[in-house]
Amino acid sequence: MTQKKKVVVAMSGGVDSSVTAALLKEQGYDVFGVTMKLSNWESKEGRTFGGCCGSKDFYDARSVAQTLGIPHYSFDYVDKFKGSVIGYFKDSYMKGETPNPCIACNQNVKFDFLLEQAVALGADYLATGHYARIGQAADRYELKKAVDLSKDQSYVLYGLGQKELSRVLFPLGDLTKTEVRELARKYNLRTADKPDSYEICFVPNEDYRQFISEEVPDAERPSGPIRHVDGRILGKHKGLPFYTIGQREGLGLSVGHPLYVTALETSTNTLVVGGKTDVLSPAVVVRQVTWVSGQAPAFPLSADVKIRSRHVGAPARLNDDPLGVRAIFESAQSAVTPGQFAVFYEGDSVIGGGIIDHGF
Amino acid sequence: MKKYIYLDHNATTKPRPEVVEAMLPHLRGHYGNASSIYQLGQEERKAIDIAREQLAKLIGVKNPDEIVFTGGGSESINWAIKGVAFANRDKGRHIVTTKIEHSAVMKSCQYLESMGWHVTYVGVDVYGRVNPAHIREAITKETVLVSIMHANNEIGTIEQVEEIGKVCREKGVYLHVDALQTVGKIPVSVDALDCNLLSIGAHKFYGPKGVGALYIRPGTRIHPLTHGGSHERNRRAGTENVAGIAGLGTAAEIALKEMKHDEKHVRHLRDKLEKGILQHIECVRLNGDPDHRMFNTSNISIEAVEGEGLIIGLDMQGICVSSGSACSSGQTEPSHVLRAIGVPIELAKGSIRFSLGRENTEEEIDKVLDVLPKVVERLRGLSPLWGDYKKGLRKSVITGKAA
To answer: Which sequence spans correspond to the domains of chain B?
Structure first.
């Protein structure tokens, strides 16, 4: 008798991970649901936590597990999440960068600690409700875009290497969101019509500025000058963490034409602004680069580079750089933002990515 | 129905088939209210009276009326402690208990503290045993009640309740015994223990959940906890849970007959399990009193492993065990019992409790002894502490030696 393969499904309480669990159960896996506890929500009265942090989501996940007849556990990752995601989030803003906490969570919690723990507990696989596909070439695994490009999440998964991909399942990669919702209704899951969540789960009311002002003391984010790229001082900013590159609104300036944030100069605590063309960068330098195959490819190399989660991707030439990789775009890109992630695609395959150090 | 290897009998047990059979009529045709005058009610009254006699025999009570049925062990405990405290508040407002009690005792005492009572929590030795002399020292003129558990739910240590009973009698203080873990498993006699009150829960000895009892020695001053109708001779208001009570009675009757036989079988399996674990897994230690311990319980600290992970890893293989007591799972606080016997926090968090029962088999224990070392090894693979130990950078907390 062959034993059924065991799979741990990370269940956030949303429709995607609910359907993931349902599909795997139907495919004959021995399915175990796990909800990561990322925050002590009980102690945060009066605050609405969205995403996987909220207790309502926990109960939704448990209810779905009950409907499917699978076990469901809660893993306490509060400390882990606080350090490697919330801490990173604050640090990134304090460095004058713009973080992507979902990628940090994927790389440092979900596909690191949770995956390791699932395997240690005896699981063969970890599955999530991400929209992406895992392909198998002759000698290696490939990470590919989802069939539903409007939902594709391969960008936030670029950090997965061969070891992770061999242990991970993304059953939704071949489905559209509409199909997923239909399946949820078919399986009678209470999350079928739950709205999608886009916000950062630990930031209340989608207001990261309020979060920073509550979490970081005033003295650590002092006011400073706003300087036009042409050298003129135009006013005072409220503290660099409150701005992000490409931002146009909320500058409190009026010079007759639209102004955009072009740089956060931490060394002088200066916010640099300019016109639309000043936000364009012909190239980007990417640090802490990882490759899905585990090995750097031969340079130079043509690839599409996606510089934030909702960027469509821009054709570029990739080259070696002392910091990691340098990508020169075919046409200059707007708002190349340090701290955000640049992900390299060959066709619909993710080949690697890293953190944007700077555009130039 | 999935097949489990169930090793968590201190949390609850599977009702015996005879228990279920005894309950069913009262969930079907026999639905009368036992307080009613007509025959449909009288039939239920009869079922309750029979159950009371069955339980009385089990705990050595001559007059069954000294037993009151409740909604379970926690209710019995709450009632014993608060009921005595309220009824004797003019005599004094001091209670003596221990540091290893069940949370029903702990929380009842804490509640009374918030209302102005004083509570002394007597410590225990490294095996979890309370020294009766320490109870004696803790009793003051203000003391109205001593509450102690007969056997501990987490580590199985059996307390010297007879000795403590003598102390209480001598000092003129009431004694409440939380006997949830012993009634139905080992012989319990309210006279031998010399107690005024004794709490019982049916589901710990193959009876149904949601029903228990409180033994109250005549003359004990106690207020009711629930007020209402004149049920249970005005001591506990609320229409009787006849099905549950009938189940409890049947469980008590069978326990009396089969206790000895069950003990022999279970003790053998428990010893085999324990021996196997101590042999096959390094850096583990046994918690509790090796000489005075419930025959079914084995509490083991496993270094460099989180108890929670271990439970899930075993559950994924169909094996049910617990860490600490079930009432405190879901929180990662180390057990207050293990802390009270001096287990360091990091070991307390990596402790699991096996509690065996009558339906366990040799094959099941063999399976656990096959699976457990593998799960422990994989989980230790995640632990930096274990990595350091294996590299010789750190000594074992348990053995005090390097690898």
So the answer is: 5-9+259-390, 17-255
Domain-wise residue ranges, chain A: 6-206, 217-274, 279-359
Tens-digit pLDDT profile for residues B334-381: 899 999 999 998 899 899 999 999 999 999 999 999 999 999 999 999
Rounded Cα gap, residues B371 and B352, in angstroms = 15
Lowest mean pLDDT among A326-330, B66-70, B255-259, B346-350: B346-350
Query: Alpha-carbon torsion A13, A16, A20, A23, what sign?
Result: positive
A352 DSSP β-pair partners: A291, A344
For B16, B24, B241, B255, B298, the CA distances from B204, given in Å and listed in that order, are 11, 20, 17, 11, 16
Q: Which residues fall within 8 angstroms of residue A360, CB to CB, at 6 or more apart? A: A281, A282, A283, A284, A285
Burial zone of B210 (CB within 10 Å; 0-12 exposed, 13-18 middle, 19+ buried): middle
Which regions of B136-266 does DSSP assign to beta strands (E)? 143-149, 174-178, 197-201, 212-216
Nearest to A121 among B316, B330, B332 (CB): B316
Residues B258-297: pLDDT tens digits? 999 999 999 999 999 999 999 999 999 999 999 999 999 9
Class of B5-9+259-390 per CATH? alpha beta
pLDDT band at A90, cuts 50/70/90? very high
Residue A159 in tokens: 């950090």
Angle between helices B39-58 and B242-280 (to 10 degrees): 30
Domain A6-206 falls under CATH 3.40.50.620: yes
Chain A residues whose CB is inside 8 A of the B313 CB are 120-122
* Second CATH level (architecture) for the domain A279-359: Beta Barrel (2.40)
Integer Cα distance of B132 and B126 in angstroms: 15
Q: Any catalytic annotation for residue B327?
A: yes
- Whether residue B378 and residue A116 make contact (CB cut-off 8 A), yes or no, is no
Do residues B206 and B214 touch, judged by C-beta distance below 8 A?
A: no
The fold of the A217-274 domain, in CATH, is: SH3 type barrels. (2.30.30)
Query: What angle in degrees, to the nearest 10, is found between the helix axes of B307-315 and B362-380?
Result: 130
CA pair distance A151, B354, nearest whole angstrom:
47
B96-152 confidence digits (pLDDT tens): 999 999 999 999 999 999 999 999 999 999 999 999 999 999 999 999 999 999 999
Kindly report, residue by residue over A255-289, the tens digit of the pLDDT: 888 999 999 999 999 999 999 999 999 999 999 99
Pairing of strands A314-321, A324-334: antiparallel
Q: Which of residues 271-330 of B touch A (CB under 8 A)?
A: 308-309, 312-313, 315-317, 330
Architecture, CATH, for domain B17-255 = 3-Layer(aba) Sandwich (3.40)
CB B297 within 8 A of CB B355: yes
Report residue A189: phi and psi, to 5°.
-90, 135
Give the closest residue to A102 by CA, choosing from A147, A145, A51: A51
- Identify whether A105 is a catalytic site residue: yes
Helices (H), B294-361: 307-315, 336-340, 345-348
Across chain B, mean pLDDT equals 95
CB B201 within 8 A of CB B180: yes
* SS (HEC) of A165-215: HCCEECCCCCCCHHHHHHHHHHCCCCCCCCCCCCCCCCCHHHCHHHHHHHH
| Chain A residues touching B308 at Cβ < 8 A | 76
